[in-house]
Amino acid sequence: MRKQIINIFATVSLFLMLGIAASAQTAKEMTVNIPFDFYVGKTELPAGTYSIYRTSATSGDGFILRSDDLKRAVIFNAKVIRTSDSSSGSRIEFRRLNDRYFLSRILPAGKSAPRELEIARIDRDGSRNKSGNPGSSEIISIPIR
């Protein structure tokens, strides 16, 4: 009788662990190849291939951006936004200010809601060009796979 209880407990534990592992795998949102150095908030990251994961599979605004070589990662929040963009493909957007790129939006295809990051305050010198005038700004869009 005792052996049967131990076997049942071991089987239930195994199924629970497999369920947790499957849940962790489904939290992966997207993979993207970013061809330039960029910032997520105040954290600078080098060009490369990155994966974006949700910190919770069911709710919340938390995300993890991790390099595919597992050497770099950053945790950030991105708020749900409303957008009239009808583009069918998933992509991320960067705001370029002079020579710096800042991750600004995550726009997944399908039922997932578009998200927007708050861009970190840039010091006065960083937002102006060498002549002292306000710097140029543009949006860079990169498709995800």
Name a few traits of the molecule.
145 residues; alpha+beta; 5-stranded antiparallel sheet; 4-stranded antiparallel sheet
Average of the residue pLDDT scores? 78
Gross geometry: elongated
Strand content: 35-45%
Write down the secondary-structure element order.
HEEEEEEEEEEE
| Structural class by sheet pairing and helices | alpha+beta
Q: Biggest sheet: strands, sense, closure?
A: 5 strands, antiparallel
**How many domains make up the 3D coordinates?**
1
DSSP, total strands? 11
Given as residue ranges, the uncertain stretches (5+ residues, pLDDT < 50) are 19-26
Report helical residue fraction: 10-25%
> Can you list the strand order of the major beta sheet?
7-10-9-8-11
Please tally the helical runs, counting DSSP H or I stretches of 4 or more residues: 1
List the helices and strands and how they pair.
Layout: H1 2-26, E1 28-34, E2 38-40, E3 43-45, E4 48-54, E5 62-67, E6 73-77, E7 79-80, E8 91-97, E9 100-107, E10 115-116, E11 137-143
Antiparallel strand pairs: 1-4, 2-3, 4-5, 5-6, 7-10, 8-9, 8-11, 9-10
Any overview of this molecule?
With 145 residues, the protein is α+β, with helices and mostly antiparallel strands. The chain has one domain (28-143). The chain has one helix and eleven strands. The chain has a five-stranded antiparallel beta sheet, with no helix packed on it. The termini are far apart. Residues 19-26 have low confidence and may be disordered.
